[in-house]
Amino acid sequence: MTSILKLKAFILLMITAVFLAGCNNNSSASTSDNKTLVIAMSASNIPSTDTTPTEGYEGYRFVGHQLYDGLVNWDLSKADVPADVMPGLAESWEVSPDDPTIWTFTLRQDVEFHDGTPFAADDVIFNLDRNKNPDSEYYNASVAGGVLSYLKYIESYEKIDDYKIQIKTTEPYSFLPYDLTFIKIASPKAIKEHGEDYVSHPVGT
Hints:
Elements: H1 3-29, H2 56-67, E1 69-70, E2 72-75, E3 84-87, E4 90-95, E5 102-107, H3 121-132, H4 141-146, H5 148-151, E6 154-161, E7 164-169, H6 176-180, E8 184-185, H7 188-194
Antiparallel strand pairs: 1-8, 2-3, 4-5, 5-7, 6-7
């Protein structure tokens, strides 16, 4: 047997041994006495705690959706059907019957960030500016880059009143609520207070 074949045989033997060891551990962990749920994570690093977590969707699954809400959230309450969107920080939304590019979002009231500051329309505008407006003092190119594809159909946005905002899309775009599940809302107070160190002090709702 050549050295290459010996090496391949050795590697195959090691893989088999690891696989069998894993099977043995799984069988012992699946007994009715063991109540521990182990969830694997396919990310290569610990996700950032900013509003656009690193490590792809795993970052959102383990960090983003846990720390923050969006105007629209995913309904993850049912295991037997695909997830759909549900109201988040917006309790409802509607498309203008006269202009299908105009979306009006009515915000939930009596919501507070984890730092105790009240949530309102100004906070949504602040976060959209942080993601989309390079002229904003708090624009963050790194954060914006993480959600660029979810913002590309948003042409403009504005505050209507304290609990209502309006978003205009570049064209009729029915997937806007789905895109907004990835635009997370952080506390402007925390971002202003901690600056570049915000990731060490994340604050959602």
